[in-house]
Amino acid sequence: MLSFDTNGEFSQNYKFLIGSILPRPIAVVSTLNKDGTNNLAPFSFFTAVSAKPMIIAFSPLIRSSTGEQKDTPLNILREKEFVVNIVSESIAEKVNMCSAELPYGEDEFKHSGLTPIPSEVVKASRIKESLIHFECKLRDRLNYGDEPGCGQIITGEVVKVHVEDSIYENGRIITSKLKPVARGAGNDWFKATDVFEMERLMKAQIQK
Ligand SMILES: Cc1cc2nc3c(=O)[nH]c(=O)nc-3n(C[C@H](O)[C@H](O)[C@H](O)COP(=O)(O)O)c2cc1C
Asked: What is the Å distance from ligand 1's center to 29 Cα?
């Protein structure tokens, strides 16, 4: 096996992470800019953390091109709230357009063609075309440095969820109807079209 230390270039570590931790779900995070306009950006360093309280987390890295904090964390630290929108195949290309480095204050909804709709609790907008929305209040922030490639954990306490009725049956979200996409290494994306089932084994079955 090849082995590497992690104290070299951040880009080497980054490539290792995105090539080994995959497929990664994608949070499209909507926040409010200082002037009240909308900001939208995708993040695949994203996961669920707690069911009750319902908490989700994602990680914006320091921008490698400028060494500056991205707009999303700046907005969240000021406004203390945000919305996470889930990505289906139908909006994947538009979501990709949201990752463009637009000047601060330029609305990624307009740039991508996605439609903003009001949230019920927070001021940040939701994406109409996204089938699941999490309205979040900032819960914690853990920072790992200020150099390019340094990350941070932002957790949000989910105060309201929304799901498109057509993908929700008997208290469950139907994966084949959600058609989620995920991120891989480089420019790779995944579709969830090769799902397989395995029964969870109980202790008694394992000991047979
Ligand atoms: C699918 C996808 C996933 C991404 N995941 C992350 C991520 O987890 N962390 C990060 O810092 N940037 C990530 N990016 C890049 C950001 O979206 C990009 O830097 C964006 O310009 C940030 O926007 P903002 O400045 O409005 O926050 C991702 C881009 C794409 C297309």
From this structure: 9
The rounded distance, in Å, linking the Cα atoms of 168 and 173 is 5
Residue 139 lies in a domain: yes
In contact, 72 and 43? CB cutoff 8 Å:
yes
pTM of the model: 0.96
CA-nearest residue for atom 10, ligand 1, is 60
Q: DSSP label at 167?
A: G
d(C-alpha 143, C-alpha 62), whole Å? 10
Judge whether 165 lies within some domain.
Answer: yes
d(Cα 2, Cα 167) in Å, to the nearest integer? 44
φ and ψ at residue 176, rounded to 5 degrees: -65, -20
What is the residue with the minimal CA distance to atom 20 of ligand 1? 99
Give the DSSP letter of residue 64. T
What's the pLDDT tens digit per position in 130-154? 999 999 999 999 999 999 999 999 9
- The domain that holds 100 is classified in CATH as 2.30.110.10
Q: Which atom of ligand 1 is nearest to the CA of 151?
A: 11
Residue 1 lies in a domain: no
State the DSSP H helix or E strand holding residue 206, giving kind and residue range, or none if neither. Answer: helix 203-206
| Residues of the domain holding 59 | 10-206
Residue 17 inside a domain? The answer is: yes
Tell me the C-alpha distance between 105 and 49, whole Å: 30
For the chain, how many structural domains are there in total? 1
